[in-house]
Amino acid sequence: MNTRILILGSNGQIGTVLAESLRTKYGRDQVICSDIREPKLQADGPFRLIDVLDSKAIEQVIQEENINQVYHLAALLSARGEQNPSLTWQINMQGLLNVLDICSRLKVSRLFFPSSIAVYGPTTPKQLTPQFTSLQPSTVYGISKLAGEMWCEYYHHRYGLDVRSLRYPGVIGWQSLPEGGTTDYAVEIFHGALKSGHYKCFLKAGTRLPMIYMDDAIRATIELMEAPSDKIRIRTGYNLVGMSFTPAEIAEEIKKLVDGFTISYEPDFRQQIAESWSESIDDSSARADWGWSPRYDLKEMCREMLEKLSGKLA
User: Fold this and answer.
1) For residue range 64-95, what is the model confidence (pLDDT) as tens digits?
2) What class does CATH assign to 172-210+242-313?
3) Which of 36, 171, 177, 285 is 20 to 30 A from 217, alpha carbon to alpha carbon?
4) Does pTM top 0.85 for this prediction?
């Protein structure tokens, strides 16, 4: 089958890198990017202005472009979402329902929905959080992702839609700044180290959270979508992780590579969100079902982040 891909929400932190990877793999004209705004940089390939709340626009582009795979990335994230819960719910939930309905009716072969560690909550085991466990999210973003997982499973069982999902931890990449997440510090800290030699962290020094380097996150996403359907046992969201660390631990690694780097701590409202999430995750289901395995640890990630970001900032 000729793979024709639509990415909804392609301007975001993950979308920009995923689009480039998919275009390298399948061809630039085979991947249609879309977002509610034009990209900041000129798109190197087809681009459409699409609001995920506009179901007619989504349906039109899928039909006109003969789309058979959709990556639905459009959403408001955790920290930004708490500033406007009703809008976050509308975009995250109604946007997903629009996509599920259209993909089901038009027989789109595969759909990707990004879930998040935000589905975890105070009743979830903090250490090595299992695939199947108590989920009681404390943010509207997490609530929308948990509800989204259930809708994805529902559409798979009722309508046969081949929908696949990952529970992303904090994603760390040099390509762009994140936009309103609770784990944003793990990207911002590298910018601070290179620009001023200092970073003021909005989380406490010992706040441990699960993370993943962007290269691993993109590879996991594509590997999941390419896996045979009979290998995908979980239609809610697969646990996924690359590493777990605290702000103090990543700061120590950066100090080894950036002379004179310092960090200070001024926790804000995101501290409470972070404390409701897991510290480490068991992603053995992803490893067993479709062969997931991370390639980057904290040391290697810090080395590459500083190298790549230095070149970009220069």
Assistant:
1) 999 999 999 999 887 777 889 999 999 999 99
2) alpha beta
3) 36
4) yes
Percent of the chain with pLDDT over 70: 99
Residue 275 in tokens: 């404390």
Catalytic residue among 71, 141, 155, 199: 141
Q: What digits encode the pLDDT tens for the residues 146-177?
A: 999 999 999 999 999 999 999 999 999 999 87
Q: What are the E-state strand segments in 99-250?
A: 110-116, 163-168, 170-172, 198-201, 209-213, 238-239, 243-245
Q: How far is CA 104 from CA 126, 154, 265, 275, in A?
A: 36, 11, 47, 37
Q: How far apart are CA 107 and CA 161, in angstroms?
A: 8
Burial class (CB in 10 A: 0-12, 13-18, 19+), 125: middle
pLDDT at residue number 43 = 64
Tell me 259's DSSP state. Answer: T
- Provide the residue type at 296 as one letter: Y
- Active-site residue flag, 141: yes
Secondary structure of 46-93 in HEC code, one letter for each residue: CEEECCCCCHHHHHHHHHHCCCCEEEECCCCCHHHHCCCHHHHHHHHH
DSSP character at residue 281: B
Return the CATH number of 5-170+214-222, one of 3.40.50.300, 3.40.50.12710, 3.40.50.720, 3.20.20.100: 3.40.50.720
Is 288 strand, coil or helix?
A: helix
DSSP single-letter state for residue 21: H
Tokens 């506009």 belong to 54
